[in-house]
Specification:
elongated, 34 helices, alpha/beta, about 900 residues
C-alpha cells in the first residue's frame, strides 16, 4: 500500500523517546475539528511519553494535510504523520496501529481517538493506571460524555460480553492493550458502514480478552444531529446481520446461554430449607453461584439503587432442595423451569404442584388459580420485575393473596404427576412456596434500605438498560418467550422428538436408537410434542437424560392443513405457526431426530441455520381413505431441504426416498432390529422349545399389536373364525388393545373374549413369542414391523402381508410366508393348513427365521449414522476455526 511518512529533515535534532502509549487518530473530512483532538492529546498530564500518530486516510480536504504537517513539524518528537490512499475507517486505524507497534517496541497500549472527539487532560493517565491495575483487562473503555448535543451515559459495572452482543457498550475511544493486536485482532476492513468498533471488541472477546470500564476516563464525544453514527443506525439491521454471520458461535443459542450462565444468571432460586439462593441458568451447571439469603439481600438492594451497573437475576424462584431432586429424578427439571417461565408472559406467577401416581407414567395439567383453588405449591416463579414492584408498593396485601385460601392472585398452576418410584419416601413434600414468597416480600418491604429507592444516585443516565433483562438476550435467535435453560458445554447432545410416548413401534425404534447412541457416548434427550403425559418406565429413564413436553396449545401435529404436498396435508403450524418456543426447545442440541413429529418439521430449517444437525426418521407411508399413499414420508419429502439427514427404517424405503428426489448422500438407512433384548435364559429355552416340539402338537398362532384398521384387524377376525370352522389344530393368542372407533367391522364376542391386554415389558413380550410357532400380521400398510423381527428372533414364523419393507426380511417359504393384499385371507388359510400338517416345514422355517435375524442389532444399525455425524461435526468445527482465524486477519 502506498504511504507517505512525514519526518523532520534533520533526524539528529529529534530527541529519542520510548513511548508507552500511542494515540492513533484516523482522519477523513474533519480538518477543522482535528486541531481540537490534537491539542487535547498534547495537553495530557502523564508521567510517561505519549506518541501521537495522525493517519490521513486520503482526505479530499487540503486543509487536513496542512494541519497535520504543521503539527508534525512543530512537535517532531511527539507526532508522526502518515498519509495513505482512502481505505475506510478500519483500514486507517489498522495502518496507524501497525506503524506504532512496528516502530516503538516500548508501546504497551494503543488509544483510538476519532478526529472530531477530544480528551480531558488526565484521560490517558487514568486509563493507563486502570490497565496496570487490572492485568486481566484487554482494554479500558469509557462512559459516554457528549458535547454538542449534550448527554451523559453510564456504561459502568462489570463488562458483559452477553450484553455486548445486543448493544455496543465499548466506544472506539478505548485504551487497548498491545497483546490484543499481537493476538491478531484488528479492525475488519469489510465493515465500511459503521459498527466496526463493535465488531473489533467482539472479535477481541472471542480471542479471550475482556474489557473494563472506568468512571473517570475523561473521554469527550462530539455529538451532532447528523454523523457517521447516525448514518450507521439507518443500516443497523443489515450491519448486525453481518456481525451475526461473522461471530456465528457467539450469537448462537448455545453461545448466548453459556454467556448468560457465566455472566448474568437468569434464575435466583431460593432454597427454603437451606436458606440459600442459587444464581444460575441451568441448575445442573457446575458454575452456579450460591449465596446466603443475607448476601443475596445485600446484592438485591445494590441493584435497585444502581441497576445499570450491577446484575440481578430477573426471575425469582421459591422452592425447596427436595423439589429440585424430585424433578431431577424425573428428568424434568429443565423442562419444568422452561414451561413455567413461558407462562410468565401471561401471568404474574407460575406455581408447580407435584402429585404422586402409581403407574409408570409422568404427566401434567394446567389451571388458572385465581379464586378457584388453594395453592400447595412446591415451586413458585415470579414474573421479571414484579418482585421489585411488590417491594416498592405501599402494601403487600394483593400479593399476600397468593397464599390465601383460595388463591386470589392471577397465576397459573402446573400440576405434575410423578410415579411413586421417583418420589423418595424420605422426601419432604414441600408445599409452602407461596407462603415463603409472601414472607420474603414482607421482609424486603420492611427493610431500612427501602427509602433509598426514591433517590437519584448518579448524574449520568443509565446506559445499559439490558442489565435488568439479560434473560431476553438468549431468546433473540429463536424469537421465543423463553430460552431453554440448558447449558450444553460438555458431551454431544441428541434430541428425539416424538408426538407421544406409549408402546408403539415408532417409540420403540426411538428408544433403541437412543440406547445405541448412548452406548457410543451421546447424551439422549426426549421431547414429547403432542401429549401431556407419557409412559416413562425405568428403561426410558435410564436411557434419556431429560424429558420435555412442548406444552404449546397452538401446536397441531397434523391439522389444520390448508395446503398439501403430493396428496399429504402440510400442517399450517409448520408454515405459519409461532415456532419460537419449539425452536428454542431444540436450539441448544447438537443433533435433533424427528420421529413422526408431523408439523415439527417446520422448525428444522431455522434449527439448521442455527447449527443444529437435523434428521428425520421415516418408517412407513400411510393409506388415505381412497387407498392413496400419504403421511410422514411425504411430509419428509416436503421438508427435505430442512434436513441434513434422512433415516429410513429399511433399504427399500431408502430406495423409495431416492427415487422420490431425495439426494443419495443425505440418505442413511437405519434398519430396524428387535426392540428389546431377550431376558436371561430365554435363548436356551427357545432352542429347546423349537427342537423338542412334538410332531403332532397343535400350531400356536399369535397376533400382537394394535387392533386398528391399519393392522388388518377384520382380516385377522376372518382368519381366526375360518380356522375354527375348518377345525385346524391351532391355538390362538390375540394380544392388543381394541380401538372400536377405528374398526371397519365389529369384533365378534367369542373373539373379543380371547383378547389379552397389551404387553409392555421385555419379559412379557419374550414369553409371548417363546410360546408361539407362527405370527400373523395381515396389515394394509407398514414400514418394517418390529414385531416381525422380534418374532423371527424367537423362531416364530411370520405370516405377513406384502407391504412396506416386509419382503426385505421375510422370504417366501424360506423363513416365513408373504401374503398378497388382494387374496390375503385365502392365502393365509392355505399357509396355515400347510404348516399344520407339516411339522418338518415348521422346524425348517423356524430355524431359518432365527438365523436370519441374528445379524440385526441397533448397535450395528447406528454405526453409519454416527460416522456421518462425526464427519459433519468435524467439518463444522474446522469451518468455525477457519472463520475465527479469518476474522482476526488484517485485511490490507
Amino acid at each position: 500500500m502506498q504511504q507517505i511518512l512525514l519526518r523532520p529533515q534533520d533526524a539528529d535534532t529529534v530527541p529519542v523517546q520510548m513511548p508507552r502509549l500511542a494515540v492513533v487518530v484516523p482522519i477523513f473530512r474533519h480538518s477543522v475539528l482535528l486541531a481540537e483532538a490534537i491539542e487535547s492529546v498534547l495537553a495530557q498530564r502523564a508521567d510517561f511519553p505519549i506518541q501521537l500518530v495522525l493517519v490521513n486516510d486520503g482526505c479530499p480536504h487540503r486543509e487536513t494535510d496542512l494541519v497535520c504537517r504543521e503539527y508534525a513539524l512543530s512537535y517532531p518528537d511527539r507526532i508522526t504523520y502518515l498519509r495513505k490512499p482512502n481505505g475506510g475507517l478500519s483500514d486507517a486505524r489498522n495502518h496507524g496501529i501497525r506503524h506504532a507497534l512496528a516502530t516503538w517496541a516500548s508501546v504497551e497500549a494503543i488509544y483510538m481517538l476519532d478526529a472530531d472527539n477530544r480528551l480531558r487532560p488526565d484521560a490517558m493517565a487514568n486509563a493507563m493506571a486502570a490497565l496496570a491495575q487490572h492485568p486481566d483487562a484487554g482494554w479500558i473503555y469509557p462512559n459516554i460524555d457528549m458535547f454538542g448535543l449534550s448527554w451523559n451515559s453510564d456504561y459502568g459495572g462489570d463488562y458483559s460480553l452477553l450484553i455486548h452482543t445486543m448493544i455496543n457498550i465499548c466506544e472506539a475511544g478505548s485504551l487497548i492493550r498491545r497483546e490484543v493486536f499481537d493476538a491478531g485482532v484488528y479492525f475488519d476492513t469489510s465493515f465500511k458502514s459503521g459498527f466496526e468498533d463493535w465488531d473489533f471488541f467482539l472479535t477481541a472477546a472471542e480471542a479471550g480478552f475482556r474489557g473494563r470500564n472506568i468512571d473517570n476516563f475523561g473521554f469527550l464525544y462530539r455529538k451532532r444531529a447528523e454523523s457517521m453514527l447516525a448514518d450507521s443506525e439507518r443500516d443497523a439491521e443489515a450491519i448486525r446481520s453481518e456481525m451475526r454471520k461473522k461471530h456465528k458461535r457467539l450469537f448462537s443459542p448455545r453461545g448466548l446461554l453459556e454467556l448468560e450462565q457465566k455472566e448474568a444468571p437468569r434464575y435466583a432460586i431460593f432454597l427454603a430449607d437451606r436458606h440459600e439462593v442459587l444464581l444460575t441458568v441451568d441448575p445442573d451447571a457446575p458454575d452456579g453461584r450460591v449465596l446466603t439469603v443475607a448476601e443475596f439481600e445485600q446484592q438485591w438492594w445494590r441493584t435497585q439503587t444502581d441497576n445499570s451497573q450491577h446484575h440481578m437475576p430477573p426471575i425469582l424462584v421459591m422452592t425447596h432442595s427436595s423439589v429440585l431432586e424430585q424433578l431431577r429424578r424425573g428428568r424434568l427439571l429443565h423442562g419444568v423451569l422452561w414451561t413455567m417461565e413461558r407462562r410468565l408472559t401471561q401471568h404474574c406467577f407460575a406455581a408447580l404442584e407435584i402429585e404422586p401416581r402409581e403407574a409408570d407414567r409422568i404427566g401434567w395439567s394446567e389451571q388458572e388459580a385465581q379464586g378457584s383453588t388453594e395453592l400447595h405449591a412446591a415451586m413458585v416463579m415470579v414474573r421479571p420485575g414484579l418482585f421489585n414492584e411488590v417491594v416498592r408498593d405501599s402494601s403487600i396485601a394483593w400479593v399476600a393473596g397468593l397464599a390465601a385460601r383460595p388463591c386470589n392472585v392471577p397465576s397459573t398452576v402446573l400440576r405434575l404427576q410423578l410415579p411413586d418410584a421417583l418420589l423418595d419416601e424420605r422426601d419432604d413434600f414441600y408445599t409452602a412456596a407461596a407462603h415463603d414468597l409472601v414472607a420474603l416480600a414482607a421482609r424486603y418491604q420492611a427493610s431500612p434500605f427501602r427509602d433509598a429507592l426514591s433517590q437519584q444516585w448518579d448524574w449520568r443516565v443509565p446506559g445499559i438498560s439490558w442489565r435488568s433483562r439479560t434473560h431476553e438476550i438468549p431468546r433473540a435467535p429463536t424469537r421465543s418467550t423463553a430460552a431453554y435453560p440448558r447449558v450444553a458445554t460438555d458431551g454431544r447432545h441428541v434430541g428425539f422428538a416424538l408426538p407421544l410416548v406409549e408402546f408403539g413401534g415408532v417409540e420403540r425404534v426411538a428408544l433403541n436408537v437412543a440406547k445405541a447412541m448412548k452406548a457410543e457416548g451421546w447424551i439422549p434427550h426426549l421431547f414429547v410434542l403432542d401429549s401431556s403425559s407419557c409412559n416413562f418406565s425405568q428403561e426410558w429413564r435410564e436411557t434419556f437424560e431429560s424429558v420435555t413436553f412442548l406444552a404449546d396449545p397452538d401446536f397441531k401435529i397434523w391439522e389444520p392443513a390448508s395446503s398439501s404436498y403430493i396428496g399429504t396435508g402440510v400442517p399450517d403450524w409448520s408454515r405459519f405457526g409461532n415456532q419460537g418456543d419449539a425452536t428454542a426447545m431444540f436450539a441448544w442440541l447438537d443433533v435433533l431426530i424427528n420421529f413422526h413429529g408431523g408439523a415439527i418439521s417446520g422448525v428444522m430449517g431455522p434449527l439448521k441455520r442455527l447449527g443444529v444437525k437435523t434428521a428425520v426418521s421415516l418408517h412407513l407411508s400411510d393409506l388415505s381413505p381412497f387407498r392413496r399413499h400419504n403421511g410422514s414420508t411425504y411430509l419428509g419429502l416436503a421438508f427435505e431441504h430442512a434436513y441434513d439427514l434422512i433415516l429410513p427404517c429399511s433399504h427399500q424405503l431408502a430406495d423409495w426416498c431416492h427415487a422420490m428426489g431425495m439426494p443419495a448422500d443425505k440418505i442413511i438407512p437405519l434398519p430396524n432390529a428387535p426392540s428389546f433384548d431377550l431376558p436371561e435364559g430365554a435363548e436356551e429355552r427357545i432352542v429347546a422349545r423349537r427342537v423338542n416340539r412334538a410332531a403332532h402338537a397343535p400350531l400356536r398362532a399369535i397376533y400382537l399389536g394394535r387392533l386398528d384398521h391399519q393392522k388388518g384387524v377384520e382380516r385377522l377376525v376372518s382368519i381366526v373364525e375360518m380356522a375354527k370352522v375348518m377345525r385346524l389344530p391351532i391355538e390362538w393368542r390375540l394380544i392388543g388393545k381394541s380401538v372400536m372407533a377405528d374398526m371397519s367391522v365389529e369384533i365378534p364376542l367369542d373373539i373379543a373374549n380371547m383378547l389379552e391386554p397389551p404387553l409392555t415389558t421385555p419379559e412379557g413380550l419374550a414369553e409371548a413369542f417363546e410360546w408361539a410357532d407362527i405370527f400373523i400380521l395381515p396389515s394394509y400398510y407398514e414400514g418394517l414391523p418390529l414385531t416381525i423381527l422380534e418374532a423371527m428372533r424367537s423362531g416364530v414364523i411370520p405370516i405377513a402381508t406384502d407391504t412396506g419393507a416386509v419382503t426385505e426380511v421375510v422370504r417366501q417359504w424360506e423363513n416365513g410366508i408373504v401374503l398378497s393384499q388382494n387374496e390375503t385371507i385365502a392365502e393365509a388359510m392355505s399357509a396355515l393348513k400347510c404348516l399344520a400338517k407339516d411339522p418338518e416345514l415348521v422346524l425348517r422355517l423356524s430355524a431359518r427365521a432365527r438365523a436370519d435375524v441374528q445379524r440385526r442389532s441397533w448397535n450395528s444399525a447406528v454405526i453409519p449414522l454416527l460416522q456421518r455425524l462425526e464427519i459433519m461435526q468435524a467439518a463444522e468445527k474446522k469451518k468455525e476455526q477457519e472463520g475465527t482465524k479469518d476474522g482476526r486477519q488484517l485485511v490490507s
